[in-house]
Structure formats: C-alpha cells, structure tokens
UniProtKB/TrEMBL annotation:
Keywords: Transferase. One of its GO terms (molecular function) is glycosyltransferase activity. This is Glycosyltransferase. GO terms for biological process: lipopolysaccharide biosynthetic process. Residues 160-297 form the Glycosyl transferase family domain. CDD domains: GT4_PimA-like.
Length: 331
C-alpha cells in the first residue's frame, strides 16, 4: 500500500499539534512497513498512490485544493479533520473582530470535504459529535486517536536536570506553542499569584503575547525540546498544565501523562474522552478552576492516568488503527 500525506505547507516550519500528529503517524506507519510519502503540491500526480490522507480542515484552503485534486484524479481520500469550533476563542476579549465571520464564511469548503471524502478519522467520538452538530451531511468515520511516543515510557528526570541545573526542583510545565489560544498568560498569572515556578516549552507564535507572558518573574522559557529530553522534562515536572481555549485533546497532555506527570487540562474539546476523571480540569474563563487545579496538582497521584494512557494511546497502537482504516477504504 502506498499512501500520500497532504497537509499545510508550513507544518514543519510553523509546528503545532497537527505537525506532531502527521510526523508521528508517518513514523509509526513506516514501522509497519507502509510506504508513506508527503507532499504539499495541490496538483501532484496521484497515479503512484493508492490513497490520499489529508490532515487538518481548520486551515481549509490548502486541504480543499488537495481534495479537489484527488477527486479529479479519482483517488480515495481519508481526512483527519482535527476540528473544533473556535467560537468562544474568536469572541474573546482582544480577538480580531472579523475572525469569526471569516471562519463561518469558509464552512461550506469544510462541508464539501467532510461529506465527499471516503472516510473521516476524527481524534475522538466527541469530535465526531461536534462535526455532526455543525454539518448536515458527513462521510463514514472511524475514531483514530492521537498518541504518545512509545519510548516515553522509559522517561527519567536525570537528563533534564543535568541540562538545566539552575531551574527549581519543583515547577509547573507547559509544553505548547506560545500563543493566545494556549492561554499561557493566564497560567503564568495564576502561578505567580500562588508562588509557583512555571517552565514553558515550545515555539513562539505571537511575539507580543510572548513578551506579556515573560513579564512575570516566575516564568522561564527554554525553547523547544524533543525526544528523550522532552520526555525527561515531563517526568521531572510536578504537573503539566494546558489551560487552552480548546484541545483535541492536547498532545502534550497525552505525552506528559505517559511520562508519569499530573495533568491539568482544559475542559473544552475532547480531553475528557482521553483522560476521563484522572486529570484536573479547568475552564479557560474561570480563575478559580485553574487556581484549585494548581493547588491540588502538587498532592495528586499521576499513576492512574499514566497507566490508562500507556495502555490505550501509544503511537504504535494508533498506527494499527490507522492502517485498519486505510484497508477499510481500499476494500
């Protein structure tokens, strides 16, 4: 089987959750002896491929062009929507006044892909239910979750502690691109009020916002970490907090939990389907929810969630589910 992945052209230069999902799915499928190619060419010759897998309908314009090309050439398509309606986020204080109107204007393009592809691969049943609420007609689907790197089960604190000896021994970690959607300013403010050290990992998406976050003296940003060093960072943190405006479900929350870290997660999106009652949840407009979660996290046990995530969400298992979906389409 030969599969072509298509995604936004800047998914590596401007990394986000979809970047991790694409790369991790690709690597784990290769481990199953699948031949996977990647292209951002909207006019690519698809004759060598059995199937086209398109990622992300939030940035819909590129995905729409990929889909039209696949239809034109008579190729089967599967789509990972990575979808959540951003209404609350786009209506927040300080948001662009026409952002929500632009989002709604592009919904018919999303609707075409969602109804005319061969199979949808939502990351959760909750995501699928939201799609069913927002769109009249949808293709068949198979829930295909996000995952964590299998190697993260071996994470230990030593590597991170050796690389960053000047950091306090106890801190809250947030691994995510630094942007208003991820809500690090709110997290930094509440950590500062509680006297907690906050360590940020990830690229900077918004320089103005980044400068506001760093105004708090308790915040340290140490850039983007990967692989064994990232897993070590998760394992040493007292808690990992991702109080975003929404997540599906938050890849860094998955990774942190697999490394044995207490998880503080937004309650917006699909996190509850993954973490059930084993994480601490916050609402992005409720200060008290975040304050309580931060206070509780230092005495909470990460073990139940760690065992649950390790049993259900390694990328190796996700690859098998994805391969099953491809076979369903081609059969």
């Amino acid at each position: 089987m030969k599969v072509l992945f298509q995604a936004r052209p800047d998914f590596l230069q401007n990394p986000a959750g979809d970047s991790v999902q694409i790369v991790s799915t690709w690597q784990s499928l290769k481990a199953l002896d699948m031949e996977i190619h990647l292209s951002a060419d909207p006019n690519i010759d698809l004759s060598p491929y059995d199937l086209v897998h398109i990622f992300n309908i939030t940035r819909i314009k590129e995905s729409y062009m990929y889909f039209l090309n696949a239809q034109k050439q008579g190729k089967k398509t599967v789509i990972s929507p990575i979808y959540w309606p951003p209404n609350s986020y786009l209506q927040r204080e300080g948001a662009s006044p026409n952002a929500l109107a632009v989002w709604k204007h592009l919904q018919p393009m999303r609707a075409r892909l969602l109804s005319q592809c061969d199979l949808l691969l939502p990351n959760s049943q909750i995501e699928m239910e939201v799609l069913q609420q927002d769109f009249f007609k949808l293709a068949p689907y198979q829930v295909t979750p996000n995952g964590f790197p299998d190697s993260f089960v071996n994470a230990t604190p030593q590597l991170f502690q050796e690389q960053f000896p000047d950091l306090p021994k106890e801190f809250v970690l947030c691994a995510a691109r630094i942007s208003p959607r991820k809500n690090q300013y709110w997290l930094a403010k509440l950590c500062h009020e509680l006297g907690l050290q906050l360590v940020l990992l990830g690229p900077v998406n918004d320089q103005t916002y980044y400068k506001r976050v760093l105004e708090f003296s308790n915040v340290a940003h140490i850039g983007t970490l990967q692989g064994e060093l990232l897993a070590s960072a998760y394992s040493v943190a007292k808690a990992h907090a991702l109080p975003s405006w929404f997540e599906t479900p938050g890849l860094s929350s998955l990774e942190a939990s697999a490394c044995g870290t207490v998880v503080i997660s937004t309650d917006q999106g699909s996190p509850r389907e993954y973490f059930q009652d084993m994480a601490l949840y916050v609402h992005p407009m409720d200060d008290q929810s975040l304050r309580s979660a931060l206070e509780q996290s230092y005495n909470a046990s990460p073990i139940p969630l760690m065992e649950h995530i390790r049993n259900h969400y390694p990328w190796s298992r996700v690859a098998e589910i994805t391969l099953e979906a491809y076979r369903k389409v081609l059969d």
